[in-house]
Write a structure and sequence with these properties.
The chain contains 20 helices and 20 strands. The chain is α/β, with parallel strands linked by helices.
């Protein structure tokens, strides 16, 4: 798994008895063993996990400090020949000062000790009574158990196995402070941040804390692993819930159930290669002013992926959140379209309506825009242009959609014109090749453009992001318009947008026709059929859009290598596609993506909707004649 940049991390909240270092060490060992059985590579425990956080003035007692160090030594010896790094909380005395520390242990060695920087001394916290700040302890080493151990808050731990895997540690308040340590660590190169915490619960504090960690992970573009003290701490004045969470770039990957008296463990895989790729696109990380000491280690190999990935990464899984997403996107589209119409002082739109999903969405977005801004739907000039492959089903659905929504309807049959054109260019009508197909697409575009000129209107394009990625559109045909309303939306998301509109439509007839459009196979309908059934199934020719959108997302958003995309797709679609199918369509994706840039370099304007865009004026700039050899080469030899 290190080959693909995944690091398996864990956060444990062990059962605890306040000031009972023997009991606490036993429970920590149990959690270490459990973590090893789960192939966890690095595990974090809560703040002062060896002693408990709520020891108060017992931290002034020699016996507690001596026993804590004994437990620490025991854990170091216990770690010998164990393939795991773990971080425990322990009070450490240095030069007549006591520090609240995170101790990093690996295979019989103490890698480093990170003392807490910001010591809270307000409200319910009195830590300055017992602990000193690490602020002045940089570039220090201390002798502990016969080892000279790096000590300070200037440590970054670096893997020898994966150059992108670097981690750093902060302790509770270090995150809450105005100038968090995690920001410094991220700028210094740490891709994963661990936080040993003791955050008590009060009403509504949980949401604030969760948002704080989420934002910190997002702004530092890091993995963030958080473990806080549990309910077994003293409840004399405070209650700790034992909250633990794992974030990646602001996304919550795992979270435990709070208020649990038993030991509990969460774990998942963090993609450090993904994080570094994203940082490379962000110039905030290009020049770091922070100089940290580097501690090098070898991490264990992790063989099985625990984390799962969405089959449709452009679509939110939860129904309610997806509805919010759809409403937001429709607002973006309608506002963008109105801005263009307002700028032109021209409130007429021409659109070709085929009875397919893409043109249906574009039509419904125009309708929503017009209704929102008080424009008569008769200013939507909807044209259906039946050709040689048009089926009865799509033709009737197009007519119904236009009629029900009170748009201006025009029907122009393109067959006669195309036959004349075929004669002009000596194209055999019986040869259904690319010329035969593209001539129809270009004829339709010419009609739309000319009627737009005649009506003083603009043509609204219906091509989507997935088609642009694959170049599955006719150059100077359906790939051209005056405004491409669907250009930022992938195929897998279009369906959910149309479904959302249908679900919120009060017109029963409109809902019925939209439902039938949703159930119609995707097809360009350019090849004749006597049975009036779809003979051109796009996905059988070009591949399943659910796969292509998955490939596109991981390739473009995270810069994932072809072999990694293949690995993720195998894991994600193992119950839907076999490995040969995935490999076949992945090769198709790369070939088409690279060879079709010339089409994307001259696309019409269209608003960005998702995390990625293929606009040459925006997110993606690439020459039209770049080679794809090194991308396909990596997939060669895979059986």
């Amino acid at each position: 798994m290190d080959e693909y940049g995944f690091i398996k991390v864990g956060a444990s909240v062990p059962e605890l008895k306040v000031a009972d270092t023997l009991f606490n060490t036993l429970k920590i060992k149990e959690q270490i063993d459990l973590a090893i059985s789960k192939n966890i590579q690095i595990l974090v425990f809560p703040e002062l996990s060896i002693t408990g956080y709520t020891c108060l003035d017992l931290f002034h007692q020699d016996q507690l400090i001596i026993k804590a160090e004994d437990s620490l030594k025991d854990l170091i010896e216990y770690s010998l020949n164990k393939e795991i790094i773990f971080i425990v909380g322990c009070p450490i005395r240095v030069k007549n000062k006591l520090y609240n520390c995170a101790v990093v242990i690996n295979n019989g060695k103490l890698l480093g000790i990170v003392p807490k920087t910001y010591i809270p001394n307000y409200n319910e916290f009195y830590e300055a009574r017992w602990f000193s700040s690490a602020e002045l302890e940089n570039d220090t080493k201390i002798n502990l158990f016969g080892q000279n151990i790096p000590f300070g808050n200037d440590l970054i731990f670096c893997s020898l196995n994966n150059k992108n895997f670097r981690f750093a540690i902060e302790i509770c308040e270090d995150l809450w402070n105005v100038k968090s340590k995690s920001s410094d660590y991220a700028l210094g190169g740490a891709s994963i941040l661990f936080n040993l915490s003791a955050s008590n619960e009060t009403a509504f504090k949980y949401d604030y804390r969760k948002d704080l960690i989420k934002v910190e992970s997002a702004k530092t573009i890091s993995g963030y692993v958080y473990a806080s003290s549990g309910v077994n701490e003293s409840s004399t004045d405070l209650l700790f819930s034992g909250s633990s969470m794992i974030f990646e770039n602001g996304d919550l990957l795992e979270e435990n159930e709070r208020f649990n008296f038993e030991s509990n463990l969460i774990y998942t895989d963090i993609d450090v290669d993904r994080l570094i790729n994203k940082r490379c696109k962000n110039n905030c990380f290009s020049n770091s002013e922070y100089d940290f000491r580097k501690i090098y280690f070898e991490n264990s190999k992790n063989l099985k992926l625990t984390r799962t990935f969405s089959k449709m990464p452009f679509v939110l899984n939860e129904f309610e959140k997806r509805n919010v997403q759809c409403e937001e996107i429709l607002n973006i589209l309608s506002c963008a379209l109105y801005k263009r119409l307002k700028h032109l002082n021209n409130f007429k739109c021409v659109i070709g309506v085929s009875g397919g999903l893409d043109s249906t969405l574009a039509f419904l977005v125009i309708k929503r825009t017009f209704e929102k801004y008080g424009i008569d739907n008769k200013n939507i000039i909807a044209i259906t242009m039946p050709g040689f492959g048009t089926t009865t089903r799509t033709y009737k659905n197009a007519l119904k959609l236009i009629s029900i929504n009170n748009a201006t309807f025009k029907e122009i049959d393109i067959k006669k014109t195309c036959i004349s054109h075929f004669e002009d260019i000596s194209q055999d009508m019986n040869i259904h090749d690319i010329t035969y197909e593209n001539a129809q697409a270009r004829e339709r575009t010419q009609i739309l453009m000319d009627i737009a000129n005649k009506e003083n209107a603009i043509v609204i394009g219906t091509g989507d992001l997935s088609e642009a990625a694959l170049g599955f559109c006719t150059y100077n045909g359906d790939h051209m318009s005056m405004y491409g309303i669907n250009s930022g939306i992938p195929k897998t998301l279009i369906r959910y947008l149309v479904e959302y509109i249908r679900n919120n439509d009060t017109n029963k007839e409109n809902k019925k026709v939209i439902e039938d459009i949703l159930n119609t196979p995707i097809s360009p309908e350019l090849i004749p059929t006597s049975k009036q059934q779809v003979v051109q199934d796009t996905e059988k020719f070009i591949g399943p859009y659910i796969l292509h959108d998955f490939f596109l997302y991981h390739f473009l958003k995270y810069g994932a290598r072809p072999k990694k995309i293949y690995f993720l797709a195998k894991e994600t679609f193992k119950d839907e596609f076999n490995e040969k199918e995935i490999l076949k369509w992945l090769k198709v994706f790369f070939k088409r993506f690279f060879t079709q840039q010339f089409k994307r370099n001259c696309v019409p304007d269209g608003v960005k909707v998702c995390d990625i865009s293929l606009s040459p004026r925006g997110d993606f700039k690439m020459v039209s004649d770049v080679s794809y050899n090194i991308f396909l080469e990596e997939l060669e030899g895979i059986e």
